[in-house]
Write a structure and sequence with these properties.
By secondary structure, this protein is α/β, with parallel strands linked by helices. It has five helices and five strands, in the order H-E-H-E-H-H-E-E-H-E.
């Protein structure tokens, strides 16, 4: 097998290697990933979510991911559904009074995706009282500190 310099591989492979190295370099740290899906083949989104979740657990890191891609967020569903307490959706909303930050539990995030609700928008339907949560409670307290967080801006 011929070795290639990292500069000659695709941007997607380069990004995945960068994410893996960042996750392995730090223990009990914070990993920030902007536009998680950029450069990644869409059929690999779920694999990447699973990998980043596993690395976050193994290294004790907190991972913050930003994404504007509904397809990418939907690809997280299998991981979020299996480990809902490891995820928090943090959504920023612009209002006339400024930016409002809303948090949703992993169970609420999964329920929204399962019920075809777009968690990126200002849809009033994406409130805990309007979602049927199968594996969790609507009365969960929201904690900003999780092993793996998703932030949408």
């Amino acid at each position: 097998m011929k070795k290639l310099p990292i500069g000659l591989v695709s941007s997607g492979i380069h990004k995945v290697l960068t994410l893996i190295l960042a996750s392995l370099t730090y223990k009990m740290g914070v990993v920030l990933i902007d536009e998680f899906e950029n450069g990644i083949f869409y059929r690999r989104y779920t694999d990447l979510w699973q990998l980043m979740h596993r690395l976050a657990i193994e290294r004790g890191n907190q991972v913050f991911v930003s994404s504007h891609s509904l397809e990418c967020l939907r690809a997280a569903l299998p991981v979020v559904r299996d480990q809902p307490t490891d995820f928090t959706l943090i959504r920023m909303e612009n209002t006339i009074d400024g930016t409002v930050v809303k948090t949703f539990s992993g169970a609420e995030f999964a329920a929204a995706l399962e019920q075809d609700v777009d968690p990126r928008g200002n849809e009033s339907v994406f409130e805990s009282s309007n979602l049927e949560i199968v594996n969790g409670t609507k009365n969960q307290s929201y904690h900003m500190i999780r092993r793996h967080q998703v932030s949408l801006g």
